[in-house]
Specification:
Layout (H helix, E strand, L loop, with lengths): L21 H10 L4 E5 L2 E4 H17 L7 E5 L4 H9 L6 E4 L6 H11 L1 E7 L3 H10 L5 E5 L12 E2 H6 L16 E6 L9 E5 H15 L6 E3 L7 H4 L1 H8 L2 E3 L6 H11 L3 E4 L1 H9 L12 E5 L6 H9 L2 E9 L4 E5 L11 H8 L4 E2 L5 E5 L15 E6 L6 E2 L3 H7 L5 E9 L5 E6 L4 E3 L2 E3 L1 H9 L4 E11 L3 E10 L7 H11 L8 E4 L12 H12 L1
Parallel strand pairs: 1-11, 3-4, 3-5, 5-6, 6-7, 10-11, 10-12, 12-13, 13-14, 25-26
Antiparallel strand pairs: 1-2, 8-9, 9-19, 14-15, 15-16, 17-18, 18-20, 20-21, 22-23, 24-25
Helix pairs in contact: 1-2, 1-9, 2-3, 4-5, 7-9, 11-12, 12-13
Amino acid sequence: MAAPAGPAPAAMAANHVPLSPISFLRRAAEAYPGKVAVIHGEQRRSYAELFDRCRRLASALSLAGVGKGDTVAVMAPNGPELLEAHYGVPALGAVLNAINTRLDAASLARILDHGGAKILIADREWGNVVRAALAILSAPPRVIDIDDAAGAASPIGGMTYEALLATGDPAFACTSPEDENDPIALNYTSGTVGAPKGVLYSHRGAYLNAMGSALTFGLGPRSVYLWTLPMFHCNGWSFPWAVTAAGGTHVCLRKVEAATIYRLVAAHQVSHLCGAPVVLGMLARAPLSERGTFTHAVRIATGGAAPPSSVIEAMEQAGFSVTHLYGLAETYGPALTCAWQAEWDGLDLVARSRLMARQGVPLVTVEEAMVADPGTMLELPWDGLTLGEIMVRGNTIMTGYLKAPEATAQAFAGGWFHTGDLAVRHPDGYIEVKDRSKDIIISGGENISSLEVEEVLHRHPAVMEAAVVASPDDVWGETPCAFVALRSGEALEAEDIIAWCRANLARYKVPRRIVFGDLPRTATGKVQKGLLRDLAKASDA
């Protein structure tokens, strides 16, 4: 059938409504008003109650002088208040800045100043850090206290969160923005390279990423999601919105501890949870005395770093089905997923785990991904060998860095978002990260993937964690240096580790030096490889 002649009809209210995850809560309250939406300790709240509280929050913030485009910062654990802020703050056109609870006072002050926070909602557990940060600022934001009994401490501000809500109107209209590209959230990168950058998310991007995450992770009305992933990290990979869109139940968690996680999984029939590989490792290594018994299916998604296949194996043996995701703050969290293939069912656990450790293919809501030469912008062969940079584009990429047009232009050069991660693409289309561009070790002209060496180290039964960086070498230019943390009660010599690597790696990839001790981490739990590189250089001096 031929297309009609003339210009296309203009979009109108009947056929175009700006996309925003605010609509997810409104629908959930209509479809499942009496269903438990939030569990926090002994507390239970229905979707009707959650919608009521979010409208009260939006109204109260408006009465407090917060308007469209203003920033509201929240420094809190994974509790009801931070979940409510994901709806109440954007419902009046304001921007949510969920802040890492592990930050020091100076870093917190920089973020509050750079983001222009008008109000800071803070849990009293972090009162000392908040007070110290406010003392640094010449124009500090107004502080509202979260007075949670589980984190009881002395007051910070002059009003509690519940008192703020009491001033709000439960009939406040939670409407979608006029422009779906308006900012909904501001997130700061971990700052492993230079100062943290403020990443801006749009209502449209948040809506689509939540839908992609819900579809990828198999969320539905019967899903029970345990909040092991920080909501401050990429807005919890959009799961505050995704779980609500599916009509699932949110189970809050103030502190990530293996015994508590196992207990809640059993008690609430938790079906889904997320966490970095360090969380998976903690669960896999937990003593039997801390593991509650459960027989139902539990899916756990991991990302932020490539999980060692040995950890995936251990999690499968503990009763968890692992979904591997890949993404960055700039991609709202997940952008790639290791989509399951039916033919993998017949493989043994080790072979299956190696395939599952790959980063995979784009989420359905990510338009395109490729492994390309950053110089020519040409896509590289799908041969599993040719190394290039992962680049993505689509509707779930940040709108840009706050107050940093040059950094934004550089990140979007050539019409793609440049991740800075080096990878290969296999003939089946699955992308596999080999390293961050800055973490590749070049020894005698040969590229060595630190992740490959770390994978071998993690398979040693006495090794709990390992990180590999380049160490200067007069002959080879660089050689691998391994920093190793052993399991409790284990004792090894450097030669034991080197011998293990020699048996499992090409000789040029074997670390020349082994350093034992705990691995330094950033506030978001990432290993500080920059610090390790400095240590490796200093010890060679």
